Amino acid sequence: MTKLDAKIPEGALADKWTKYRSSVSLVNPANKRSLEIIVVGSGLAGASAAASLAELGYKVKVFCFQDSPRRAHSIAAQGGINAAKNYQNDGDSVYRLFYDTIKGGDYRAREANVHRLSEVSGNIIDQCVAQGVPFAREYGGLLSNRSFGGTQVQRTFYAAGQTGQQLLLGAYSALQRQVGMGNVKMYTRHEMLDVVTIDGKARGIIARDSVTGALERHFGHAVLLCTGGYGNVFYLSTNAMGSNVTAAWKAHKKGAYFANPCYTQIHPTCIPVSGDHQSKLTLMSESLRNDGRIWVPKKQNDNRKANEIPEDERDYYLERRYPAFGNLVPRDIASRAAKERCDAGYGVGTSKMAVYLDYAAAIIRYGKGEANKNNMHNPSDEEIQAMGKAVVKEKYGNLFDMYKQITGEDPYEVPMRIYPAVHYTMGGLWVDYNLMTTVPGLYALGEANFSDHGANRLGASALMQGLADGYFVIPYTIGAYLAAEIRTPSMSTDSEDFVAAEKAVRDRLETLMNIKGSKPVDYFHKRLGKIMWDECGMARSAEGLKASIKEIQALQKEFWSDVKIPGEIDNLNPELEKAGRVADFLELGELMCIDALDRNESCGGHFRTEYQTEDGEALRDDENYAYVAAWEYEKQSSFKLHKEELKYENIKIAQRSYK
Q1: Which of 196, 216, 276, 514 is deepest in the core (most CB within 10 A)?
Q2: Is 33 a catalytic residue?
Q3: 502-626: what fold?
Q4: 209: which residues sit within 8 A by CB, 6+ positions away?
């Protein structure tokens, strides 16, 4: 098996990025104007990268399948963004953020990339404040911080419960400035359907205009994929319904290795499934675990209403099992703990597949604090409740409103019901230190790559990584490649390679349209999602994974013989778009199960039931599996494994403990 070269700079960990920036090859301003860069995706990673590269002088094209970059799924992030500013003076530092991220990822992330992420985290906040992002502030005007899972410091900056939206508007403003100046050309409602490679290098893409159905060829000296994660392989997830793996999967088939595909993050605080009618799930921000307490009844199959269960009959199981971190344990641990309680018969709600997230104690605590601030002596319970609710509303109001709109229950009066759901994918295209894939000239940024989160992402680190990659990493690292491309002229899209790539895309679309089967696309997507959730979700086993691989292979054959796609190929056709994405999900799902079966250990979000400690925690095998699993596509249902060994020279590997 090939050992991958991550191109990690030499030297001490804390000096790698500084020395790299001082020695990396540069492209002079005149040459930048003749170099073209394609950016696919316009979320936080894509918008920030495109704006930054255009500001440097490159010619940039941006593609997104939405009608505006403002609709990118980054907008859905709620809770916050991490940065090692130590504004709370509670002991935070670049090293502590680095350590928390490595530990939170269960020692399956690359040290050099994570330390770089921690180093630039503070710059992100400064950049966003300068753009006018309205972060929450303390009474004196300083930026406010709150806690997130997996840490014991407050380092998460936030804008109520809509941090992603505000950050995206900041990046969008920077992007639109460059569009207005003519440095960026924006292609909305365009979906990338293939990467064009010439002499082994990425030289462009084939995109489909979703409105007209026309296929287009676009040249670029480099291609950046900023297309998010693949959580919708499970059908039900917290992702936007349009989120997909197609761009990354097409790159995979053109030679880009896919790393750690089985690493999926299950978010512990989502509104539970309510029926077969649902097409997606709704996230309740992890920030709610700051003040909310998670519990289940101590009695099995307890059908009493939450407010009827007295305090001494409640099991605050996270506080009981993990006293050092309590409700703020990492997401994988909190999710498995909730599943364990529900499987054991302590679940709540009509489905019994939920636990409570309770704000009653927080409301009283905040209310008493407000009474003291207002010099109120002997305030009534009603006054304390009213003042406490006002504080909670200021901090989390839009999340509480969203919960009430969806469930019809008022979380100010009764506890929320939550259950884990698919949220984020730590796997993605393998990239080196420069964020380049195994295809020269092809880069992957943000959630589309695998690099920074190991086997479990800490809360509030997704926004951090996306903006770090776009604003502060790729503007430097892309020079290492483009400095050698200044003599490469713009290539004609009439060349043989472009024509062949477009024909391959056209043939696939026509094949899909001509199947004329009897089952709609969603029928196959739902079936795939159930297989993935049951056998490659929160718990996996060798027996279940082997069976699921066969099931998915059979489902692939059925899809390609019986899917029904209405409409026309050369026109607006959402079902055709969806069919292409589900076809890719079917192939990805198979690889995810293969990867999960091959990794005979438990780590982070990858929990093999055969490998667990006596008290049910993930049991790693560092001797045999301390590597990144990077899969090369060979042919249908055939993938070759390559390994990148993970070396920990600055952190001592240990069994994770949050007790």
Answers
A1: 196
A2: no
A3: Methane Monooxygenase Hydroxylase; Chain G, domain 1 (1.20.58)
A4: 189, 190, 215, 216
Q: What is the dihedral of CA 69, 73, 79, 81, to 10 degrees?
A: -60
195: Cβ contacts below 8 Å, ≥ 6 apart: 202, 204, 205, 223, 250, 251, 254, 256, 439, 442, 501
Comparing 344 with 451, the larger pLDDT belongs to 344
For residue 206, list its beta bridge partners: 194, 217
Tell how far CA 585 is from the center of its chain. Answer: 16
Q: Which helix (H) or strand (E) holds 196?
A: strand 190-198
Q: Structural domain boundaries of the chain?
A: 268-421, 502-626
Bridge partners of 63, per DSSP, are 40, 187
In tens, the pLDDT along 468-518 reads: 999 999 999 999 999 999 999 999 999 999 999 999 999 999 999 999 999
Question: pLDDT tens for residues 273-282?
Answer: 987 888 899 9
pLDDT category at 417 given cuts 50, 70, 90 is very high
Catalytic residue among 208, 293, 314, 331: 331
Scanning 380-485, the segments in alpha helix (DSSP H) are 381-407, 462-467, 474-482
Q: Which amino acid is at 118?
A: S
pTM of the predicted protein model = 0.97
Q: What is the pLDDT of residues 288-345, one digit of tens each?
A: 998 999 999 999 999 999 999 999 999 999 999 999 999 999 999 999 999 999 999 9
Could you give the residue ranges of the DSSP H alpha helices within 408-491? Answer: 462-467, 474-482
DSSP code for 627: E
Asked if CATH classification 3.90.700.10 holds for the domain at 268-421, the reply, yes or no, is yes
> If we measure between CA atoms, which residue out of 430, 450, 468, 424 comes closest to residue 97?
468
Q: Is 403 helix (H, G, I), strand (E, B) or coil?
A: helix
Q: Which of 179, 59, 42, 171 shows the shortest CA–CA distance to 471?
A: 171
- DSSP state, 160? T
